[in-house]
Design goal:
The chain is an alpha+beta fold and 172 residues long. Helix content is 30%, strand content 28%. A seven-stranded mixed β-sheet has the order 1-2-3-4-5-7-6, sandwiched between helices. The protein is globular, with a radius of gyration of 16 Å. 27% of the residues are buried.
Amino acid sequence: MDELLLRRWQPEDAMARYQAITASYEHIHPWVEWLAEPTTLEKQRASLGKCAESWPSAERSFDYGIFDDDGTVLGAISVNDCLGPAGLEIGYWGNVTHAGRGVVTRSAAVLTRIALALPGIDRVEIRCDEANLRSAAVARRLGYRLDRIEPRKKRAPAESGRGMYWVKHRQS
């Protein structure tokens, strides 16, 4: 199985990230609000520069690139401290040219294990729209339990307006 490297985004990753997002635009644009229109290399340079200067971000988001052993961007994953004192949220997107290889699932599995081993963290959530079957499949494969489905604001073109909240708790 291919090796993966999860590491902080660096400014020098701008071109590779731009190429991955551009190749994957039609695949991820329908599901994410931050990609309402195709990106530019300049936007990626600015984003990664800001990320490097303020890591973690003010919202306590830890953003990582997912790379193969050749340095190809396979996707991105983040851990967000937005659920209160005892929980973390994981978010992700995958490079469509590497879909079907388990890249996102393997990356989310690693970050789930790390997050649940942190002191004071007893749960990790993956949140996605009910219509986003691929994202929900990642949570399901990793043993997350569907906690609830509830209405939420549509933020991206393909969303149904119904959010799925998948939860995994620390094993006692």
